[in-house]
Fold these 3 entries.
Entry 1:
Amino acid sequence: MQSLMGTGVALVTPFKKDFSVDTEALTRIVNYVIEGGVEYLVVLGTTAETATLSSAEKEMVIETVKEANKGRVPLVLGVGSNNTQHVLEELKTRDFTGFTAILSVSPYYNKPTQEGIYQHFKAIAEVSPLPIIVYNVPGRTSSNMLPSTVIRLANDFKNIIGVKEAAGDIVQAMKLIKNKPEGFLVISGDDMITLPMVLAGGAGVISVIGEGFPKEFSEMVRLGLNRKVDEAYKLHYKLADSIDMIFEQGNPAGIKEVFMHLGISENTVRLPLVNVDENLSSRIQNFIKKLN
């Protein structure tokens, strides 16, 4: 899956001030990140506020992204739930035309054992029409998918092609990279440790900050993949403060504030999320001015 090497970005769902989906702004964002050099797009992930979207709105987002993309870069679709049967039904019934792979989060809230996580993804692998990237994000799921579980899945199911690893633990990431089967993608899900993961042998990133600053962040990842360490770290440190800022008061409130200051979309989020405060907004604005 060489097309999923490098920088993928987790697209936001922009809303108008009345909280309706802003398809024109979504089209602008798609064009902005592709023109900025990212390698692929992730649709309906956590950053898209998917939990607050209706079924009709999800279809609207999918069709808008596909139309705006026009086949320029691969698309990955978020298909996950803490209800295994719900995921299986979606995989059996959805039209996946235009998508390269799915991204499926480890079950949240239920707090399954490692065996439960394995059985969840085993069931998904047995019915999925597309390759699967499993997603480990313990800060949101309240359970850590251990490297041993990921490697077991990678060895047992050839259509499980990678993991988005967002535990924020470089040691855990290195264990995955060390023990993975050949060709399996270990993808960073944590912007701040993306470069160390890439230099350790990772495949790239599914990024949030890369959506706001696609030119700089995707170039950093490419430099890392090409082992141009000093040049890559120069870009890393140039962007590091912005990574802290966009997550300081929650995602995607932070990255939507970036888009607002860039003039690309409104900063509207849906409850239970709220906008960042004036202090953080001002700091984000100042960062953008200095960067440009």
Entry 2:
Amino acid sequence: MRVERGWIGVCTMGESFGRVRFALFGLLTVLAINVPMTGPATANDEAGFQRWVSEFRAEAVAQGVPAALYDEAFQGVRLNPKIVELDGRQPEFVTPLWEYLDRAVSDQRIANGRAKRVEYAQTLEAISARYGVAPEVLTAFWGIESNFGSNRGSFNVIEALATLGYDGRRERFGRTQLIEALKILKNGDTTPDKLVGSWAGAMGHTQFIPTSYAAYAADFNGDGRRDIWAEDPTDALASTANYLVEFGWNGEEPWGFHVALPPSFDYSVADGPKFTTAAWADRGLVLANGGDLPRGFSDAQLITPAGAGGPAFLALNNFRVIMRYNNATSYALAVSLLSERIDGRPARTFAWPEGVRLLKRDEREELQRGLTQLGFDTGGVDGVLGRNTRAAIRLFQKTHGIAPDGYATADLLEKVRARLRGEDINRPVTRSEVREMQTLLTNLGFDTQGVDGIPGRRTRSAISQFQKSRGVLADGEPTITLLGALRLADRAQ
């Protein structure tokens, strides 16, 4: 599913095999449409929904939607309780990355992908010639998004988006997408009976939301319509190719490399700076098979999606372009690995940390609260392990001599719980670290009356004041945990 900047959590249609959900974070702000607020929806608030439909008609007409078309599109449209349920549902389970990949890049999907690659060879080659996106890559997107067209969704898109537009959680997204869906009908690209898709309004073989359809869909077969809903996948595949190229796809580069890291590697650089592959090689990285890392590529970013106990990859620009399509590392890996297998390349073998237990949502929220209480600010408590939470985890890990991979596991949660119980999981601080604490405390407005490296009464008092300001147990102890919290607070001010 395409995601504009903003966010939406939804199953990719082709992922019904695993009921896997992602919180997808894009990067464009969806434009708000100002219509009267009717209040949060409930599954049975049909009368309120119909009032909203009547009120929204004027806004749609003002946006260029013919009134007669609006009335036709909304014939029989009702508040859909299933969409309200799906929009509000929070999964209480976690599918580890390795299990997701086993399903996404299954033997059956590889076989089906190879068959589709042959069946649509002429079409795929023609699209590839125009856009520079390899046929196996397009086939992989097709497979992951809709299982090669067999699962394109069955929700009335107008009803789905109107329900989201009326519901209090996501009205901005729903209203914006609804206007664009109505314009699709206005432009004659399809008819109301064919405008079907996912519960969140993603449509066609490769699951475009309406705003992405408006910006990137392509009429490749030249029939005058950008028909991503047809049984023929040509326009949908070309639309995906066009989307990828618009965001910088380079047909001359791979997606990345599976690499091995040297001993005592600093995992804090993962998900961080981009270097040339030559620079990474100078840091001791080699290919996972022991070969030399190719040195001719720029902007390579190290990713360790299963932490220090799992495989490492150098992701190039094309990998990040895939993540523009769906902002999840697991999704980008699935597309990348499936494309390789469809192309006939051998299966890769990865050493996943299968004995590691990942966290359920309530545990992720507990981790965020615990880290914040200890002074490692996660930027909020929402159960989503985003950039801020991973940064807080890394700082906590580095503070306590753990490989700073930013990976949230049950073991990490136990360490946080132990610290909250007051158990000593820290090494002693050095005199130079006490001096750093005193400097940071003073910078933050907690006067230690000098920087001498001695944790005396005034320094302990300043520490206690800082701890109280952070909602942490004010014991006045100069620990490594405290130093990490001070560093984070100093960087944030």
Entry 3:
Amino acid sequence: MKILVTGTAGFIGFHLAKRLVERGETVVGLDSINDYYDPDIKYGRLAESGINRDSIVYGELLTSERHPNYSFIQSRLEDRDVLETLFQKEQFEVVCNLAAQPGVRYSLENPWAYVDSNIVGFVNLLEACRHHKIKHLVFASSSSVYGLNEKMPFSTQDNVDHPISIYAASKKTNELMAHTYSHLFDLPTTGLRFFTVYGPWGRPDMAFFMFTKAILAGDPIKVFNQGNMMRDFTYVDDIVEGVVRVIDHAPNGRKDWSPEAPDPSSSRASYKIYNIGCNKPVQLMDFINAIEEALGRTAQKEMLPMQPGDVVATYADVSELVRDFDYKPDTSLTEGIGEFVKWYKAYYGDQG
């Protein structure tokens, strides 16, 4: 297949593109390479894929120096002209959208970044997929959409109409728009709600990365809500495995879907939502302990109150993923943190 993967200078997009190239797909990666966090690690990921930063020209397709079936283009999803030219030229069969403005707390400071990238950019992508007859659009949603929900584990059958961050609201908007395009234009779409992804080449703004950096530097780490939080930490390779399985199977729509008792995760249209999480929520303090053990150092902890827009716990119900794809993430926390710390030390050195 020829597959467009957006967000390939980002954490999950980098890993997904690598996996698809390794299994023989022809992949075009797209990323804006913005400065929300240190662009150097984005260029580092691209370099691992054989893309030389000095050769990148905005809006021009560049072939990898390592993988002849991988190309990259720098562009924003908001740039409709570049997107239309790219779709016309490349004739993609499948699109996987991992490009987004991430971060819960930053969305309180700069909501426009989320509207531009996550909403306007996503609609542009939907339009391109519609007019170029894409066979399957897979897109990243987020566990953040569960918002004020407290029933655990979070199920895709649950109502998610009460997000508590602008980031989460933008991701819920993606799900709504995708369903609309599936219904109106018979565009097969699958949304994936990721749960707290961690691993090598991770994002510097995420807790596991910041904790590791601070511990190695001898600085205190910030522990919010006095550490009384739980997350369904999911290793990045497990996320990628789930995405790849989903890419290969576009939804057909459910003939038995009932508008009188509607299942929010599916439809008569060719639309589906899945959770991808480890299904094993971990206490934040246990997660910190795992990092301490992998580093062989003890963290200084600054205990702080809850942050606006954050949630106390996440916990994924992945029964539908198991039912439809015979797959459930299973990388242990010890193994996953060990792999991240090994990568971190090799990339940044023992002092971070």
